[in-house]
Amino acid sequence: MAKITWKMQDGTVISAEVKDGLNLMEAATANNVSHIMGECGGCLSCATCHVFVAHEWLAKTGEVDDIEDAMLEMTEVEREENSRLSCQIIASPELDGLLLHVPEPE
Asked: How are strands ordered across the β-sheet holding 83-85?
């Protein structure tokens, strides 16, 4: 299990223990994290689970593949170099302590 923390723009923090193998969009929706919708259920077709990975965690969350890269161009909040779709980040012990910043649409 990994403890994952989502931080909202207003400073609100939600932390949860996430079972290994669960994607972080599913974990966010299960823990009522605002602005993480996951409308496509993790099928890489909606970009409603956009997060900013804390820079110190980028290497541990894996590479962005071509499909995720294309979907990140469709996010409501402008993409940054640390943008990821949380449905593509899978919980593992290596991610214990991971911090994700949740963007808010304007």
From this structure: 13-18, 2-8, 99-102, 50-53, 83-85
Domain that holds residue 26: 2-101
* pLDDT tens for each residue of 21-77: 999 999 999 999 999 999 998 888 899 999 999 999 999 999 999 999 999 999 999
From residue 4, give the alpha-carbon distance in Å to each of 73, 79, 84. Answer: 25, 21, 15
Total count of domains within the chain: 1
CA dist 33 and 12 (Å) reads: 10
Burial of 8 (0-12, 13-18, 19+ CB in 10 A): middle
